Amino acid sequence: MSTVILPPRAHWHDRLMLWISKLSLTFPLGLTATVVGIMEVVLNIWQLAYQHDLVAQTKRRRQFWIDQAKASITGSPVAIVTGGNAGLGYETAKALVEAGYLTVIACRTEGRGQAAIDKIEAETGIKGKATVLPLDLSSQASVKAFTREFRSLHSRLDILVNNAGMMDIPFGLTAEGYEMQFGVNHLGHYILTLELLPLLHDGPQGRIVVLSSGALYSSDQINYDLLKSAKGYSRLGHYSYSKLANLLFVKALNRRLQQKRSKVTINACHPGACSTELFRHNPLMNLVMIPGKIVCRSPLVGAMSSVYLALAPGLENVSGEYFFDQIPRVPNPIALDEKAQELLWTKSVEFTGVDLKM
């Protein structure tokens, strides 16, 4: 691992995020979420100043993990990347293809998924290692249909990357009547994960990667009473609810996996402030992001923690952690609260009718 140079770590940033989580007890949710976003951009500037070859080092790390995975895989491994047609998901799917995984791109539009596959094949020269299956995470029926179709086509699943997400959107409800960001970012992936868990459990060493966000530091709780109507809706605030839910889910499921002595691991990661399509629903932020690309991470850099957790050797016994720049971090203290984890699990079962099947 001496050949791998990680991005410079800012301990001041770690301390600052924990300080913001304390502010969330008294300050408005939208305000603390905005402060988190600003600090993420500041961190990017600091890292670029300290590591001028950041992109080059990213590419070296990426290739190292791909080579290690190729050398260790057996049989014909299969992976799923939700939202694998664009941004962070595309870069993750591409790395998995290069590592030898048959990679299923799960996205709402098959045409966009196929376009991503064509691009992967053109850039890598690897043919026939990526497929697309339709998945609409805002519809629980669509998620269940996806899992049925996947199981009819594949008897194996090695890696599940819960990458897709929505951010900073006008108020809307999922097909089942839940706030859209929470419904897509958490509930849809909750169902997907539990429905596919038996396949992951039966494999050599299943890995689940959950894309969370630094936004989880901006909330001290999830207000479940605000998930079914526009009352109290905050575009960034409800996004922070969903990202906190991602980590609470990781902790709760990891505890259950350990109790069952499962070999499956589940970890969360934060990609950092990236230049992706997440702000596509906010015209003002889209304008801001034009010059903002200079200080925002590219999808290639942002996807590195996902690629690391999916492919890197030596992580077989690492589970239930929150990673940023390939290093475990201390999350918002509320995410470590077992009562909060179990409340999320109870509410998720209530909202979806799905519970652990293993």
TrEMBL record:
Q: Which InterPro entries match?
A: NAD(P)-bd_dom_sf (IPR036291), SDR_fam (IPR002347)
Asked if the keyword Metal-binding belongs to this entry, the reply reads: no
Q: Name one GO molecular function term.
A: oxidoreductase activity
Protein name in the entry: Uncharacterized protein
Key word Oxidoreductase present: yes
Q: Look up and give the organism this protein is from.
A: Entomortierella parvispora
Question: Belongs to which family?
Answer: Belongs to the short-chain dehydrogenases/reductases (SDR) family.
**Origin superkingdom:** Eukaryota
- Keywords (A to Z) from UniProt: Oxidoreductase
Xref: Pfam families: adh_short
